[in-house]
Amino acid sequence: xxxxxxxxxxxxxxxxxxxxxxxxxxxxxxxxxxxxxxxxxxxxxxxxxxxxxxxxxxxxxxxxxxxxxxxxxxxxxxxxxxxxxxxxxxxxxxxxxxxxxxxxxxxxxxxxxxxxxxxxxxxxxxxxxxxxxxxxxxxxxxxxxxxxxxxxxxxxxxxxxxxxxxxxxxxxxxxxxxxxxxxxxxxxxxxxxxxxxxxxxxxxxxxxxxxxxxxxxxxxxxxxxxxxxxxxxxxxxxxxxxxxxxxxxxxxxxxxxxxxxxxxxxxxxxxxxxxxxxxxxxxxxxxxxxxxxxxxxxxxxxxxxxx
Amino acid sequence: xxxxxxxxxxxxxxxxxxxxxxxxxxxxxxxxxxxxxxxxxxxxxxxxxxxxxxxxxxxxxxxxxxxxxxxxxxxxxxxxxxxxxxxxxxxxxxxxxxxxxxxxxxxxxxxxxxxxxxxxxxxxxxxxxxxxxxxxxxxxxxxxxxxxxxxxxxxxxxxxxxxxxxxxxxxxxxxxxxxxxxxxxxxxxxxxxxxxxxxxxxxxxxxxxxxxxxxxxxxxxxxxxxxxxxxxxxxxxxxxxxxxxxxxxxxxxxxxxxxxxx
Lengths: 307, 262
Hints:
The complex is a heterodimer of chains A (307) and B (262).
Chain A (H helix, E strand, L loop, with lengths): L20 E6 L6 H8 L2 H4 L3 E6 L3 H10 L4 E5 H9 L5 E9 L5 E5 L15 E4 L5 H10 L10 E4 L2 H9 L5 E5 L2 H9 L2 E5 L9 E8 H6 L1 H20 L1 H11 L4 H6 L11 H13 L20
Parallel strand pairs in A: 1-2, 1-3, 6-7, 6-8
Antiparallel strand pairs in A: 3-10, 4-10, 5-8, 5-9
Helix pairs in contact in A: 1-9, 1-10, 6-7, 9-10
Chain B lengths: L1 H8 L6 H16 L7 H12 L11 H34 L1 H16 L2 H12 L3 H25 L3 H9 L4 H37 L5 H10 L3 H29 L1 H6 L1
């Protein structure tokens, strides 16, 4: 946030970005660490961009902000992004990939001493997710399937991630979906028990989230988008190679303490969008009725995002 | 009788509705904004969502029957609790200066607390479900009832009370025959105010729930099903209208003597 404080931008030279100040809406999760890194290391500044992060509670909830132009780039899970696009609500372009799931990043947890010890016990139970109809509900649905359960067999309830452990402890939810670092905290302070790792087996290496812009924004600001992509890629490469950098970047936009940060399993930062991987999300959405017909993700991938 | 006729005459005033609908339709078609689908799209979508059932069930399908009765039940339960509690406490402090002096600061404090801000606490106390929702609705709407009841009870004409005393009416009789009827117009004004508030709080509480109209609204938002979002909004509007009409009918009947006096 401090990288390019000076208001006096140099006169726009030819080839510079069309828009120099970019507001990005992001969840306070480890997966957006490259954004903070790119700000701190001056990667955005080197491209002539001033990037201002704004914390959001979920990709779907912040989509109207993207439409109205309050934010230029949105960090959103792919399920919400594809739903918004397929329903015709927003014409979006994916300009970058944020994160692909690594083992231990997202856990389904129960309260200490809960009678729920396997997925099959979830019938009729309440599952806490941060947003309905998003990647959480889709991936849990995929997890329920081998146990013979359908998404309608459980109840879904929305809670922001920071409130999730409390909801689990007080019995508002029987099972909570907790990403890092919230699951470490829940295990440490409340003795919460892991029921399942969310992205394993058929969901291993599943793409979680990407960075979106509206189609209009992509058309009007191709140089700004390309500049953003170059800086993000550089930062993602740094994040992948140097976890100490990530740990210190995390302190700036989350409340993760050093001790917790060092126990986290990071590493799924992506440098490019893999169309085949994003297609996996769309196909799974089709399987569980999130989409009515097959969706070709190439239609929403921006040039340069996948290269 | 006049009251009933007056209420029945209300639908005749609905001539504005088609005009509003027409303007709405034309405006949204001209706008072509995905967040504002035209009403014709919304209505068709509402039918698919909730009204594909058999005529014997009022065309309500399983989704509707799994959500509407719960929502309405909580709304009514919250209203009854707030109504009974608000009127009882309100009349008590309206008639007792001592009680008023003791309770007023607490009531002023409680009234200033926004019920939605207390949701996390209600959630922690009652968990997700009916009790939490009824608690939220009751807490949020009890204040206008309470204040109006207190105001109504305070403004009973001393002459009426004196007369009642002369005729040897007991405390209970005085309450039922003099205080309550004379406070009734204000009590009903408070109850009417609380009606729309109750509907709002029902929706907010159900955002944090697993079923109900509010939950359906939130799920539609998250699925970017905007005609579904509007469907739920229209449904809530219709529900609010019908509840208000029903309440007016009740009010007119309860206050007939008052009308006749005018």
